[in-house]
Amino acid sequence: MDVLKVSAQSKPKSVAGALAAVLREKGSAEVQAVGAGAVNQAVKAIAITRGFVAPNGMDIIAIPAFAEIQIDGEDRTAIKFIVEPR
Questions:
Q1: Which of 23, 25, 34, 84 is the most exposed place for a label (fewest CB within 10 A)?
Q2: Phi, psi of 42, rounded to the nearest 5 degrees
Q3: Range(s) of the domain holding residue 78
Q4: DSSP secondary structure of 28-86
Q5: What CATH number has the domain bearing residue 17?
């Protein structure tokens, strides 16, 4: 499953385009975000993605979960969204 990493500075429309492309090609994707700003941008991107893939008859769901990741050798807790067709 492809992992898209989102930061607080990510543009939601750009992330949505990438997410839509991955969903069309692979069928599912994982979106990871660390911090409130990044989670905000990720949720916006997922909402925009729904509009991008709806004309193709795809309705998507996002399943939130925690993920333990390492950034610069430091353990961090991220929010991950598993995005897949309904």
A1: 25
A2: -65, -45
A3: 2-85
A4: -EEEEE-SHHHHHHHHHHHHHHHHHHGGGT--EEEEEEEEEEEETTEEEEEEEEEEEE-
A5: 3.30.110.20
